[in-house]
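Box 3.1 — From sequence to structure: DDE Tnp4 domain-containing protein
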Amino acid sequence: MKFAFVMVGWLGTANNSRVFLKMIQNPDNHFLIPLEGKYYLCHGECYHLCDYRGQQTPKGPNELFNYTHSSLCNVIERCFVVLKAH
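Predicted structure (token representation):
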């Protein structure tokens, strides 16, 4: 996993879109616009893995997407826990 940009230290409560807009509007942040075909994955709502436990492989493209998206969200959450601990 490669982090292109990490923003920490937001005070108080804010939704993802507010934090993202403030971050890209400030030129001091040096936010990089992604290359064509590339995207930024931002923290957001994640699917619950408990819905998939005890089941076999996901059925259909939507279930497969939900499962892989949830797994990726869990990896990102663990990365932030480790980063915050340091």
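Summary of the box: The chain has a mean pLDDT of 76.
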